[in-house]
Amino acid sequence: MNVYKKVNKNVLSIVLESRDLETERDKLVEEFHDAMDMREEREISLKLRDIRELPSNFGVVFLSFLEFLKTQDIPVNMELESGLMDILMELNLGEYVHSIQVLA
User: Fold this and answer.
1) What is the pLDDT of residue 26?
2) Which residues, 6+ apart, have CB-to-CB distance to 37 below 8 Å?
3) Are strands 46-48 and 3-5 parallel, antiparallel or unpaired?
4) Taking the mean position of all CA atoms in its chain, how far away is CA 91?
5) Taking residues 48-68, what's their average pLDDT?
6) What is the pTM of this model?
7) What confidence tier does 32 reach under pLDDT thresholds 50, 70, 90?
8) What is the DSSP track for 6-72?
9) What spatial distance separates the first Cα and last Cα of the chain, rounded to whole Å?
10) Nearest 5°: phi and psi at 58?
11) Which structural domain range is residue 14 located in?
12) Count of domains in the chain?
């Protein structure tokens, strides 16, 4: 089962290859910046590989990515908030939903 939550029209593809937490977070940040540079309207979609194939520490990486988002000047609309929440729920990290609500 692939997890794909289209938040808006444009796509930010997050593909995690490395097992190193810092490297994975840096990849998320780099991909995010690349997408933001290319998207004037700052529309984002998140695409995750099959949950079963994700590194065991992906939840930690994703939460680190959310912390990064807090430092950016990015409008978090309801669609983006909903998409991020869906991903947390798929990762069984529902207790961290407040991290996303802080972004809005």
Assistant:
1) 72
2) none
3) antiparallel
4) 12
5) 62
6) 0.40
7) low
8) --SSS-EE-----S-HHHHHHHHHHHHHHHHHH-TT----EEE--GGGS-TTHHHHHHHHHHHHHTS
9) 29
10) -60, -35
11) 3-101
12) 1
